[in-house]
Write a structure and sequence with these properties.
- There is one protein chain.
- The protein contains ten helices and five strands.
- The chain is α+β, with helices and mostly antiparallel strands.
- It has three domains: 5-45 and 53-75 and 148-227, no CATH class; 100-135; 238-265, no CATH class.
- The longest helix is centred in the first third of the chain and has 23 residues, at 5-27.
- The termini are far apart.
Length: 268
């Protein structure tokens, strides 16, 4: 005995409708908007496509809204953000970038924990200290205990986000069509959007292209962009390997360190 095909489709349709209803409620308040491309294989059967042909794939875009914990709606008012942005004079190292004493102390302690973890994980004589409280990472701006960020997926579309036009169409599909927001509503408050570089780039291009449009939504000023931490780490690794790696002839370079570490790990 198994559930029939029609009841399964009806259950999926009801679930999708309920997810959109929840997302509409979240989308009317403070939230974070994230999205990326998605590729769906529509046929895995060789009989339908031939043994030598690739699987049928449909490309599109998939978005998720994230509910903001303890957010203040007034802090997200777009006019104040735009005014401060226009008055900004650029970053200064000593004022904006140089870490404070508290930040430096925290960073150094976290690095010490990382270094010691190598000993407690790989050296038998130190393994008993692995769970010692003084050797654990200390949290900064800790979230409430047991809190899990709520996420609300939206309907995937066949609009591709790899182009400037596709991004603009996708924004309208999400906020105007799916979330049923009016343009006037969308022009009042900022929407944080954290994505990878390939997504943020056409958003910025769209903002430049529509810089003289009629309202903040059409100009896409509402989107305040952030850099995904995972991709930030990828860029850091790329810079280390391609810019700072050095060669075997450079004493103290990363290449010499990697070679030395590899020899030690193999027992030589």
């Amino acid at each position: 005995m198994s559930v029939g095909y029609t009841p399964v489709l009806n259950a999926i349709s009801s679930l999708a409708t309920r997810c959109i209803e929840l997302a509409v409620n979240v989308g009317s308040g403070i939230h974070v908007f994230c999205y990326d491309n998605v590729n769906l294989s529509t046929s895995i059967f060789v009989e339908q496509r031939g043994a030598s042909l690739p699987a049928k794939v449909t490309s599109g875009t998939f978005a998720v809204l994230y509910k903001v914990c303890n957010g203040n709606r007034e802090d997200m008012r777009l006019t104040s953000i735009i005014e401060r942005f226009k008055r900004a004079k650029g970053l200064e190292y000593n004022h904006d970038l140089e870490p404070t004493e508290i930040q430096r102390a925290s960073f150094y302690f976290q690095l010490e924990v990382v270094v010691v973890r190598v000993l407690t994980k790989y050296v038998n004589g130190f393994k008993s200290y692995f769970m010692d409280q003084s050797l654990q990472h200390k949290s900064r701006r800790a979230i409430p205990k047991g809190h899990i960020t709520e996420q609300f997926p939206l309907r995937a579309t066949t609009i591709e986000e790899a182009t400037v036009r596709g991004n603009l169409l996708f924004h309208d599909d999400i906020y105007v069509t799916q979330l049923k927001r009016s343009v006037d509503e969308l022009s009042d408050f900022a929407i944080p959007s954290i994505n990878d570089q390939l997504t943020n780039s056409p958003i910025c291009s769209g903002q430049i292209l529509r810089a003289r449009d009629s309202n903040a939504w059409e100009r896409r000023e509402v989107f305040q962009l952030g850099f995904g931490l995972f991709h930030l780490c990828l860029n850091l690794v790329w810079a280390l390997l391609h810019v700072h790696c050095g060669s075997l002839g450079d004493t103290g370079s990363l290449t010499v360190f990697f070679c030395f570490a590899g020899e030690n790990s193999s027992g030589r």
